[in-house]
Amino acid sequence: MVIDERLPYAPYPAPAGTAVAAPPAPIASGGGVGPWFLARANLGVLIDLLREDGRTVIGPAVVDGAVTLAEVRSVDELPAGVGDEQVPGRYRLVQRGDRRVFDFAVGPTSPKRWTFPPVVPLNVGRRDGRAVSFEPSPIDPPRLAFLGVRACELAALGIQDRVFLGGPYTDEDYHARRRNALVVAVNCTTAASTCFCTSMGTGPEARGGYDLVLTELDEGFVIRAGSPDGADLVARMPVRGADAGQMLRAAESVGKVAAMMGDPVPTAGLHDRLLAQFDSQHWSRIAERCLSCANCTMVCPTCFCSSVTQRSDLDGDVSTSERVWDFCFTAGFAKVAGGSFRSRPRDRYRQWLTHKFATWVDQFGTFGCVGCGRCIAWCPVGIDIRAELLSIAPPLGARPEPVRPKPVAATPGFYATARIVSVRPETADVTTLTIGDVDPAFLAGEFGQFAMVAVPAFPPVPISISRFGRDTIDLTIRAAGPATAAIIGLGPRDEIGVRGPLGTSWPIERAMGHDVVIVTGGIGLAPLRPLLDGIIARRDRFETVRLFYGARTPADQLYREELRAWAARGDVEVELIVDRGTPDWTGPVGVVTHLFDQATWDGEHALAFVCGPERMMEATVETLESRGLPPDRIFVTLERHMECGIGLCGHCQTGGLFVCRDGPVFALSQLGGIFGREGM
Amino acid sequence: MGAADTTVPTAASGRDREFKVDYITRVEGEGSLVLQLREGEVTEARLRIFEAPRYFERLVVGRTGDEVIDIVARICGICPIAYQMTAVHAFEDLYGVEVSPAVRQLRRLLYCAEYIQSHALHVFMLHAPDFLGYPSVVAMAGDYRPVVEQGLAIKKLGNRLISVLGGRPVHPVSVRVGGFSRVPWRRDLDGVRAELDEVVELARATVGLVASWSPPDHEHAQPLVALRHPAEYPYSDGRIVSTDGLDLAPGDWREAFEEHQVEGSNALHARTHDGRAYLLGPTARIILDADRLHPMAAEAYAATGLAGEIRSNVHRSIVARAVELLGACAEARDIIDDYRAPAAPRVPFTPRAGVAAWSTEAPRGLLHHRYEVDEDGQVTAAQIVPPTSQNQGAIEADLAAFAPRVLDLPHGEATQRLEMLIRAYDPCISCATHFLDLRIIDRGREPERAPAAG
Amino acid sequence: MATVAARPRLRVGIVKMASCDGCQLTLLDLEDELLAIAERFELVEFPEASSARSAGPYDVLLVEGAVSTPDQAADILELRRKAKLLVSVGACASYGGIQALRNWSDHDAIRAAVYAHPEYVESLNAATPVSEHVKVDAELHGCPISPDQLREVLVSVAVGRRPQIREEAVCLECKRRGTVCVMVAEGIPCLGPVTQSGCGALCPSFRRGCFGCFGPREQANATSLARTLAADGREDPDVARLFAGFTGWSGPFRAVVAAYGGPPGVIPYAVPESAEGGRDGRG
Amino acid sequence: MTLPAPSEFAGADLALALSGSWFGAGLTPEAVTRLAAIAEVRDLVPGDVVVAEGQVAETLGIVLSGRIALRMLVPERGTVTILTVEPGDVVGWSAVVAPYRGTDDAVAIEPVRLLTFSGERLRLLLRADPLLAASLYPRLLQSVGRRLAATRMQLLDLFAREEWVRSETKQW
What is the ipTM of this complex? Predict the structure, then answer.
């Protein structure tokens, strides 16, 4: 795992009980002395110091019936004597009458609101005649200080760090915001009925990832520093060394909270137990209650999914893109041209819960849950994930192979401008654009990768690269909707925005010395064409090469001249089939598997590359397996709703995989139960 | 709907003429006009409303005060606040609710905002094209862009102010029995306040501008009815007064007025008990409450020197409307300057059985609501009397008085003049629809019945 | 694409059925862009704002209001023929709106309750959404509609793409703007979780529960929400009244209203004497 | 592969041709022998009809080479090719399944060599020899089943272009 070292402190340790153990975090000693004691009357000094340092203090405040996070200008705005009662679906404030300011459990808002804001500008796209440009929006986050961050929230920040900074790509906006924020943590001395940080191994005591940490006593605060910045602050505050009694009472009050919570969610083996329950009837029972309103994900301090929205002027010449919070519970989230991959609420709930407690582990090495309990309290119908997890009570199941993403630098808002060199209609609704002036990264791209393609005012669309030229790339695009229609409506010398190359590629090296079987249908030939180009360029390195290509009608076949040319070579077997015969078509009619389900060759020494509609690929895979090809030698592409292209927006998640980043090319063995399963 | 011909010359010669306007444009809702003259004498002047019936008085049955506030707002998209205010006052009057002074001022501010957007809409977008000779404000913008932009700027401010107070310009959501669901912080109003200085000046200029536009010759003074308050220009408080010396509590509308059918038109009109038509709206208010105008509005009004003409020629109502627009802008600024958020946005209340009745001054004139309420606070019967249905008699009387003046004009021009006169009233037919429906079933068949079961 | 600016101005019509005019007013409320819109589009039919009329054809026809009278039912068929794209605008046009609450009641009884001479009043037995009469190409929701969404529809037609109108619960807008949930924190019943977004989560931001004026969102689980509200100690009529609002005639909300005893003030249908089998299908 | 002319086929050649096909490969040796005894080889030219829709199916055939199209007449759309029968597969299965009428037109679209069995003789043989029937019917079912599965996939019209206006969304 890579965590950017410019963060002011060490990453938060991975929650206990998860698959990947992170090394214990080295916590700075804070000048080597401590802990200290800060008298209650002097708490204001801390806020004043932070403000003096030019920081906006984000801390707890009572707003509209809840202790939430808001800008705190003075110590008087803290929720003195205010506590809370939380049960599933219900939150109420309680007036205690004492002077304690941190004696409440987490409210509806977490620091996520500032580290990963609900709306972030991405870019401004402009079109001027044939020229287009995309100007990334400046990243200029405020200097913040979070006050009163709880252990579970620190863990959540740590998880966000892994998501946004720990993978092959980093989210620059998050990075900038995170770097600009100072964290003053508070150890919990109370817990709500919804809290379960003890099960998730994240609290109630802060274990790192902070600059300062306080433990509240009646008379004041026991205080420790976790970073040089924190130590520096302490040095400017009227503190004295905490005495043994204070230290003991602080430890006791935190320990009491831990005992109160117990261990409501046994996490041992949870990952495997959950993954074994994809087909459980329990998901339907939850869906009867679940409103798919996404409140659980919105209050969750780790959920990170997003969408990009555009707003353009009346002519579509200038458009502003923004990243907004979006969630796996909304209808359009997993939508592709043919419909939604998760059209049923039960699938959406399953996606969320299995992500939090299982596939997140595969992706990031920790659970996606920190046990803050917000999703329980703020669920309008009071669904309690602890109870749901226990009801599912599953046996052990298999785990998918780990995934090795391929690093390519890219940022969601950044679109390089490229120019269309030529346009070639392939069929009535498919057009190939040859694009020049592309980002040099494309010229080093690999077969099977894709690009995000944008014109202003339209949502960007993922398009496979259908040929790598010497200094151009080809994009073969079907008019599946307005955005693709707009792109293929462009002409030579028009500009478009492109970002990439993205995703995984066909493992051509593995096929060397083997028979090659390529099975494809419809526009699925496009991402395979570079592979064929590559094989033909080094034809002697491969044994037999067979291409089976199905299309709807003869007129829907792509690259007809090239298909003829490949067939004419004599060393590539090209077999074509159509779903609907026409009077002039004398070739075979039927589905693509029809071409080889009675053929005589066997697949014992073959690698297969398959691309087409998922249902077609399923039938193909079945036939290939019956010919002796094992799942690790069958490679397929998945299509999902892809927006960011780099595994940060969450739309294309399926199981523990981001299709855009970990795919779109997968070995069948990597997919396990995902492939062909409804609602993934 | 989608009609091609708006006028049909049926008897276009001599002193016998008939004018029909099948669809009166640039008003809210759907109405038509039939005007017949025989020997130069008006034999029929009929404003017909074919807006679909919407049955609001029945839809509020079973609902509580807060629900009624939301429902009656939907009677009119242009003046929803007038409906909300009339209803909230009616229920608070019955329940004996005393709102805090700050809440009362906020409600006045909200009413100011509605006047600003509604009057700006009518003055610049619906009525001005008549004076300047265009079919619409969009067409007018070609030659009078600065004027149109001036109107849009004023209207926008009114809408922004409503949005700050109630969330959105059309059907705002904050008015509740006992106060507001939420009141703005002082800082929420700062943005609007910053623009008000300029908008007040734009409104002031508007008075002079519309006063300079020559109206068609016309002289027909009618009885006027409006609210009058001891200290302030009337919005939602005061007594019902008239040029004939009427003086009633705002809930006692029924003591002087009634709705009844006029023979030959089958229209429900509101008239005085002795059968007289009367005129509501800016003209009535500015004549009856001239001494209550905001000083800045009073000054601009005096400078026009048009009090007499406003009284006798309804085409001059655009001047009255502009003066009120200025008054609303100026008062909004004063209220914001003095605003301090109340400690509580609303006060608690206990429903009780009785009659909740009140009248307020909608931009188009006196609006009366009357609800019979049971002990749970649920409505058992309702009567809602919008200004346009009360003005209908005055409009028809005015048309009859005005028609001889257009008798010698070409047909198209004559009908345009008649429409212009109707538009001077800023009629809101959408409002009227919930109990007015003048369609005469003349197909010789029974009205439709509920579907047979089975 | 490169020649967008050279496209002819699209002919836009705005007409109304039974409504309050508030949704078409929303177009005039786009003050900053009204003149630009008028330049970009030809507003050929907009009787509320213009005396110039057109009987069509229209590239885009915005229809406000519910179909409530026999004439309107005939008109909408004719209008559909003249319109390339027909967009129903607002809760009335898309769901029947407030007047559709009368659909639960006996039509004759309602007429008699409001009018002294019901025989002069012609209306259909039910006020219904435009989509029950003709094919609708897009629906704008809301009572009133959102000016931003109206603008987005116009822009998308001009640019030739699908309008980017998010299908999601009001809760998403509510949480994005940082409003504390009024239902969880204050016990105020709120239809936000089952209501389509677009208003900017207005009511919760004013510390009120959402009353569903944008209508049910896709796959709205109104049943579960109603169950929760009822479990919170509410009587059936009080659950019904929450859902019997400006989009109460929409499928998911109508089902809840029916399950909880119908809207307040309903006048039950008279069962005709000759009827064989009642309305509930008994036979 | 060069095949001898039909008249040159002897019994052993017929058995070899049968067991060498995909269809015949699934039969027991005994079944192959008994079937070969009543088999004939026929050569078709493009346009020859093996089975006609609705007509009594006279022969069951196994395609040895060439391709046969299964076609149906659709009013107002003309003749549509539903599927092509590839070498190794069976054509005319209705000859052994009641009511013994063709479900579509089977038309040669290339020069075709066919191993044919008279429907009438085959039915007699199957009735007389349950072991042969037990060997042949599963193979037949497999072939028909595969055709059914393929037809379902075609029915899904997987490569069809999505409509611009989609039904699942209320907007646009």
Answer: 0.82
